[in-house]
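Appendix B. Extra example for self-study. Work through it before the problem class; the solution is given directly after the inputs so you can check yourself.
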Amino acid sequence: MPLLEVDRLQTHFRTPDGVNRAVDGVSFSVDRGETLAVVGESGCGKSVTAMSIMRLIAEPPGKSAGEIRFEGRDLLKLPEREMRKIRGAAISMIFQEPMTSLNPVLKIGRQIGESMRLHQGLDRGQAEAKAVEMLTLVGIPEPKRRSGEYPHQLSGGMRQRVMIAMALACSPKLLIADEPTTALDVTIQAQILDLMRDLKVRVGAAILIITHDLGVVAEVADRVVVMYAGRKVEEAPVRQLFAKPRHPYTRGLLAAVPRLGSSLGGRPGRLAEIPGIVPSLKTKIEGCVFASRCPEVEEVCLRFAPALEAKAAGHLAACHHAVRGREEAA
Amino acid sequence: MTSVILRRVLSTIPVMAIVALFVFSLLYIAPGDPAAVIAGDQASPEDVEKIRQGLGLDRPYLVRFVEWVFQILHGDLGTSIFTNMPVTTLIAQRVEPTLSLMLMTLVMAVAVAVPMGVIAAWKADTWIDRAAMGFAVFGFSTPVFVVGYLIAYVFALKLGWFPVQGYQPIARGVGPWLSSLILPSVTLAFVYIALIARITRAAMLDVLSQDYIRTAKAKGVGQRAILFVHALKNAAVPIVTVIGIGVALLIGGAVVTESVFAIPGLGRLIVDAILRRDYPVIQGVVLLFSLVYVLVNLGVDLVYTLVDPRIRY
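Solution. Structure tokens for the complete assembly:
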């Protein structure tokens, strides 16, 4: 049994001008110890998916349907009390914005210790001692002094380390990282990714990493889910996805990655882009969600939504001509 | 920290000097003449003039001001024109009821208003929020004397739970003291509660949408701890500020409340003094009120550093 199974998850938001289908029937699973990356551009529903798993979607206006089975239990059906016992303990989360995700008026040590006090029943002294240990683990120098400091006394990279320490404090089985490196500069990004990889092995957690950065994906993921307009359009092991992307959207994403040399060599090339914009999630889309931007669009794409089909072992894509398109391109 | 406090205390001196000048000048240019009041309706202009000379009111403005300031610096607020008692003695007699009233109101208002604002923010846009804010608008827009008479009518006259009027010094026992203070404090607290609850709600709404609240939820922190630990401490600066500013409301409200409930406090003292143009008493009480206000807000500034580690002086 996989650790986490997201099954036909739908998270919709009621807005004054219609229902926003931020996540519309997404399924995937995460195995124990595995790293799954969810990629897609802004607004594709990847963060909402993460928030839905944590049940942190404000309701109303949001509403999640489908099933999210964690160790066999459907999280969407758990009472809030039970869900609180899971948050920060079995499943924890790291957010994009280390600068604003820590409480500015509480000491670092207290913030890290809090989940251990809540979930493991440690007293204040024990929790603070454990917090210092966690700070050591995430490589913060002078952990004892730092644990007595406030977030504004730390740099962005250090704060993200603190967030990681906080998330790993109760040795979670699943760590959800929502764009953990996006707000950091490149050298710090690499450090944070290294740290996550290292700690994942030590703690034995599975990681669900949400990102728009394919560089990050290549570096940490075992498998990849590509989302577009609230749907999953492709899923594959990471090597296979980079080597043989089946969905035109994935190919577009890969082509849009800037490569060193491509524009610096003789001819100044233009960065490839995917033309058009993400369709509004408030209107129900007939046919393929990507049809309006797809270079390979055909009559059938506009009429029928393509089903997710296995194109190779462990490789799913939702495209009417995913295989053929690839062969032509190859 | 001690040097900070010392510096801030010293900085209140110029403020108090300006207040003193202002109070003195205001009374100087205000119409009305204590000599005429003392002399009565039948007195001739010559009699009034004689009394005025006796009181020293005929001397130039500047001379009188300098003399007054000189007195104050020696701890002497002057002598009442009418009772011939030292102003400090008059104030000392009246300070307990007013201080009791203000403190009681402050404690009561904060204890009610802060949770009310927090819950209104948590339940924003529900009927709970609307009820709380409706109450706040009502509390803010109903004059103190209306609330006072209504409350006195219901709880003192009809139900007989509390005395209608008067004040029992704490020396006569905490029970009677509290019971004599409850109705006036509730009356005075209305406006104050409205003010604090509204600001608390607004500050909390802002804080509750912050990323770190989401982080706390993701850690599995319960609703109550989110509201009262993670959020309230972040919302504290505007709340503490408005509590400090609101002390001005308390001072103004105390004057009216003391009249409604016949409490022999500073409010009554200053109202009587104003009616009789008893300059030294008016000046003394206003100076005292100003000092209280300045000190309270000095306290507020110092509380900032306790609630928000980013604030350092």
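Self-check: The mean pLDDT of chain B is 86. If your reasoning did not lead you there, revisit section 3.
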